[in-house]
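> tool_call: predict_assembly(chains=two)
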Amino acid sequence: MGGMILASAGLAALFAPWVAPADPLLITGDRLQGPSLAHLLGTDLLGRDVLSRVVHGARLSLGAGALAGVSVMTVGVLVGVVAGYLGGVIDSLLMRLAELVLALPGMILAFAIAAVLRPGITAVLVGLVSVWWASFSRVVRSLVLGLRTRDYITASRASGAGHARVIVRHVLPNVTSQVAVLMTLRMGRLVLAVGGLSFIGLGPQPPTPEWGAMLNEGRAAFPSYPHVMLAPGLALMTVVLGLNLLGDGLRDALDPRTGNLADARGLGRETSRWCVARRLLWRVPGGQPPCPPGCR
Amino acid sequence: MTQLFLRRTGWLCVVLIAISALTFWLGTLVPGNPAEMILLATQSEPPTELQIRAKRSELGLDRPLPDQYQRWLSRAVRGDLGVSWTRSVTVTSLIVERLPRTVLLAAAGLALSLMIALPLGLASARRPGSRIDSACRAWSLVGGSLPAYLLAYLLILVLAVKLQLLPVLGFDSPLHLVLPALTLAVGSAASITRFTRNAVLDAMSQSHVRAAAARGVPENAVLRVHALRNASLPIVTMVGLSLAGLIGGAFVVEWIFNWPGMGTLAVEAINTKDYPVIQAFVLFSALAYVIVNFAVDLLCAALDPRGDRARASI
């Protein structure tokens, strides 16, 4: 898990902005475009220090990504638990809705929703969350279905654990830990999606530093002064790489047999839960999972 | 089989209706007054209050929503998607002009991506744990972290600017297709490589393949006859999904390279708040995506020799 090392780089990027912004936020300095001198990463079209913009942009880009991730998890868990636990009509309805959302192209839908709202980070967040909750809710639902028949659930109901609410106290902890792992795997793509929507112009508007928006701004200067685009771009890529490595590392830690999928047969619980989750996330039509034959 | 087909077709219809409803509903959420916008576009002086009101009732905008939806739908089905607010041409003509170009780009991207990814995935699976394998997996990882909008500029920097090999903007020659298609290709190649590798590894680990290898069947034959046949189904699924994914994601790349397709149209429409165009873009992209997925579904069902009963579904 050397991946964990790079992952800490990702985490460091998260905390750095609060600790030490390289320079004040927006120096509208006189210099228009300058390569690496007193300004470590140069200045952009308006004379602002690229490094400090990148560092502050991390707050918005990563913060939005994190917020989006948490929102997706919350909505997904909510819907999934309700559907899985209550079953029946509500279950079918919610799952049909989820399938509908999944049937539509994600980026297009997010794009459409964000386009209708006023451009800004909220639009991007709303757009992305409305699309991404669906696959999570399906995973959660299947997890809940699996848990519903467990002994401790039956036991607590039998001992008069009144509501669904008390039982939720058993269901939720088990579910959220798994969902959190899944989320770390997808977090990279989520951050990229935030950047992508901002790049088109649906996100935070000009003076605000955000990596996607900065990439957009850098387009004008591009061929002659690549550093204006390269700085936020490489920052974005490194962070996403760190996130992906972290996700992979976590998954490897929990599911010991990654390299050789074929031997997953005898592993029982973790693997089958994992396979179910993965299969759901993949939403491969025709029910063909990229999963070994031993998996349920 | 027929039952599955009917069920899937039924679901397809539901999804199509949902798409149309969603697109229509998004259009109504738009801030701003459509009547006013159209009048502003078509006449030279700012419209008067009376004109706006007249236009509103002409367009049926003062009727209840379900009514409006029905009118919109009936017009849309007949091919009338309204007039662009900024360009005063029918939206349909814009779509007809631009859609084929987007399809061309997506197809080229997919073809390139397959040319890169399939051999790599195969090579990686044949020697698991080797340097090729590690290289491919690393490449998969990096490819998944590299967004298209950054990759595009990196490619431009290297191929177009420094090496002066390929043109960047516009549409004039076949060479113009290379850079955008390459950008799209690299993006999906990363995941296709990883997927192919896993699928082939899975297939190769199955008992009949191992038995064949143990019997002494030469490695190439084992690969070709036994393993690939089993692996081909998930791979075909993946290809179909990638195509669908490309349809969904190509619009950013199009805009970057100024490739005059649906994507550029959509982004321009966003900036000028030209909602009929945005609506049509969402409609068509969603349609294409859903239809491709549906086709993949059917293909999957048709190709799977194990039949309906053996197919596990959730």
